[in-house]
Design a protein that fits this description.
The complex is a heterodimer. Chain A is of the alpha/beta class. Helix content of chain A is about 30%, strand content about 30%. In chain A, a hairpin with a 4-residue loop joins strand 3 and strand 4. In chain A, helix 2 packs across helix 5 and helix 3 packs across helix 4. Chain A is globular and about 65 Å long. In chain B, helix 5 links the parallel strand 13 and strand 14. The N and C termini of chain B lie far apart (about 50 Å). The model of chain B has no long low-confidence stretch (mean pLDDT about 95). The chains are: A alpha/beta, B alpha/beta. Chains A and B meet through helix 3, helix 4, strand 9, strand 10 and strand 11 of A and helix 3, helix 4, strand 7, strand 8 and strand 9 of B. The complex binds flavin-adenine dinucleotide. The site of flavin-adenine dinucleotide (FAD) has 27 residues of chain B, from helix 6, helix 7 and helix 9. The site of flavin-adenine dinucleotide has 27 residues of chain B, from helix 6, helix 7 and helix 9.
């Protein structure tokens, strides 16, 4: 089983989001970067499948040199080697094109990634790559088992889940509970340093969108506290202020 | 030229998120000076009468691909049908709802028809200089303004961001005969498990959610009573679904379902940032927690400090009595 796992390098989920330069740049001050949480699940499942069936797990990240600690963490979790496409990701189309170029030459049985990145929340890359390389793409996948040349999956649908079968190769956007999230151990961290990390220049591409400005939501007003003995007051608010009753 | 809107259905009705998409497309048509808003329905589960009623949201015509093999949302087949409809109507603007089907489908369509794609859009575009849209990013913690640079543009709108228009007349429904390629059905749907309950969490207007403070699954009856009284869906925090007190699809937050209801009621949930990430686009938040220092109160509009086991039944009774 030859597996490619695409990971994003994103601000930690607890990061305070702020912008600088007249709201044109993300403020990285004090921000910790992590592997995208959904990508982490994809990687964990890839490592499990490799443990069960043999094969290899290659990590892929489109990003500048700053993402290398994140890639090393992925190697420590159990990937065998990694490729970094040396570019600042501009939009999902650009990232999809870079991934598609690697998928086309790599003969992978499975291409796994998170259902979406937690910074731009597009949820588009897996579908775009699928279309670019002519493979089925399934998302959001919460269960994935490989039996011979067939993948058995479950994907989330609004208010339920859908079970599917599809012949390999395939591309999947993953989320929990597809696998137990893995934390790197000491041995993993030591060996990760020596694992190959190849850096490639991006293939030419034209982004179709450009982000030029950011905005924060308006600050929240004060919370109105209600006496626990007077829940009727809340009911009145639901009726007259919120008008949901 | 026309604007094409892909509408999704569920159990014989058009999804609310798709009614939002049609309303958005109608307003966009007005701003762009376009006269045609073509809604596209796939499958046979919705009656012609229901389809015609999309005229109320501003559709001027409905294309109906009434093929039973398309009753289930197979990503590739849907993408192929939508791309054919785009070519046939020569639509330059395509609108759909962001959803578990809409996302993967929109991505494939964007490549097929060479379109720029903006997802999670929360408002009509600024057309003063190019085509600029505002989209929600960082799981609701910020917005980004983005320019779409291709002639063709696909806009996937965030649920509950757009008001559903309810005026106008029925629209004519026409059959649309898309060709289907066997290869588009390489992924076979073998089974569908639908959640119990009348109100689907991702689309609910009111959500009643419980956290670890509920102490155990046996105590959920109380929250279900409140939800039923309000016509709400039920949700939960991640540890609750991790411990199997509630099914996974009810788990709300950063790594779970993102909701944007009019009202979110959180009971016994601390309000960790990862949970807030899934609810911070709710219009109003009510928090019930015995700890006055619970971080959720900072994000709330209304708060009650007290024991959920006393307050929730009292609240349900008070709503019933009102
Ligand atoms: C990468 C990552 C992703 C995550 N994603 C999510 C996510 O998507 N969704 C999510 O929810 N969490 C997520 N988490 C977990 C999150 O950080 C919190 O651990 C979780 O939200 C806490 O759940 P809780 O509030 O139910 O439980 P607790 O933190 O245990 O809080 C329980 C609350 O109940 C109150 N309480 C107790 N008894 C009562 C009573 N009788 N009456 C009233 N109140 C009472 C307590 O005061 C407390 O505030 C994620 C964590 C990580 C690291």
């Amino acid at each position: 089983m030859k597996i490619l796992v695409c990971i994003t390098h994103v601000p930690d989920t607890t990061s305070k989001i702020a912008f600088t330069d007249d709201n044109t740049k993300f403020d990285t001050n004090g921000v910790q970067y992590i592997i995208g949480p959904y990508d982490d699940y994809a990687l964990a499942r890839a490592v499990e499948i490799k443990e069960q069936q043999g094969g290899s797990v290659t990590l892929l990240n489109v990003g500048t040199a700053e993402t290398e600690p994140t890639i090393r963490k992925g190697l420590a979790i159990g990937a065998d080697d990694a490729i970094r496409i040396n570019a600042e990701p501009t939009d999902s189309f650009f990232v999809a094109e870079q991934i598609a170029a690697i998928v086309k030459e790599g003969n992978y049985d499975l291409v796994l990634m998170g259902r979406e990145s937690i910074d731009y929340n597009g949820g588009q890359v897996h579908g775009m790559v699928g279309e670019m390389v002519g493979l089925p793409s399934i998302s959001p996948v919460m269960q994935l088992d490989i039996e011979g040349d067939t993948a058995k999956l479950a994907r989330e649908i609004e208010g339920g889940k859908e079970s599917l079968e599809v012949k390999l190769p395939l591309i999947a956007g993953c989320q929990e509970p597809i696998a137990e999230w893995k934390i790197p151990n000491m041995r993993g961290i030591m060996t990760a340093r020596k694992k190959p990390l190849e850096v490639r220049e991006p293939s030419s591409s034209n982004s179709k969108t450009s982000t030029f400005k950011y905005e924060l939501p308006p600050p929240k007003g004060e919370v109105k506290m209600i006496d626990p003995e007077q829940v009727e007051e809340l009911v009145r608010a639901l009726k007259s202020d919120i008008k949901v009753l | 030229m026309s604007i094409l809107v892909f509408v999704e259905n569920a159990e014989g009705a058009i999804k609310k998120t798709s009614l939002e998409a049609v309303s958005y497309a109608a307003a966009l048509a007005e701003n762009l000076g376009e006269s045609e808003v073509v809604a596209l329905s796939i499958g046979t589960e919705v009656s012609e009468g229901t389809l015609a009623s999309l005229g109320k949201q501003g559709a001027t015509k409905v294309l109906n691909v009434a093929k039973e093999e398309l009753n289930q949302g197979v990503t590739q087949a849907y993408a192929s049908v939508i791309a054919q409809a785009i070519e046939s109507t020569n639509a330059q603007h395509i609108v759909l709802a962001k959803s578990s089907l809409g996302d993967p489908v929109a991505a494939r369509v964007a490549i097929k028809v060479n379109a720029a794609l903006a997802s999670n859009v929360v408002d009509l575009p600024d057309l003063s200089d190019g085509f600029k849209v505002k989209r929600s990013i960082y799981t609701g913690k910020a917005f980004a303004w983005m320019t779409l640079n291709s002639d063709r543009k696909i806009i996937a709108i965030k649920k509950n961001a757009i008001e559903v228009k309810e005026s106008g007349n029925d629209a004519p429904v026409e059959a649309f005969d898309a060709s289907i390629d066997e290869a588009d059905f390489s992924a076979k749907i073998t089974h569908t498990d639908k959640a119990e309950g009348d109100v689907l969490l991702p689309e609910a207007d009111i959500v009643v959610s419980g956290g670890r403070g509920m102490k155990g699954p046996e105590n959920w009856g109380m929250l279900e009573d409140l939800a039923k009284t309000l016509g709400a869906a039920t949700g939960c925090s991640k540890p609750v679904s991790d411990m199997n007190w509630r099914p996974h699809h009810e788990h709300v937050g950063q790594t779970g379902v993102k909701v944007s209801p009019t009202l979110y009621i959180a009971v016994g949930i601390s309000g960790a940032i990862q949970h807030l990430a899934g609810v911070n686009s709710s219009k109003y938040i009510v928090v019930i927690n015995q700890d006055p220092e619970a971080p959720f109160f900072k994000a709330a509009d209304y708060g009650i400090v007290g024991d959920a086991f006393e307050i929730v039944p009292k609240l349900t009774e008070a709503i019933k009595a009102s």
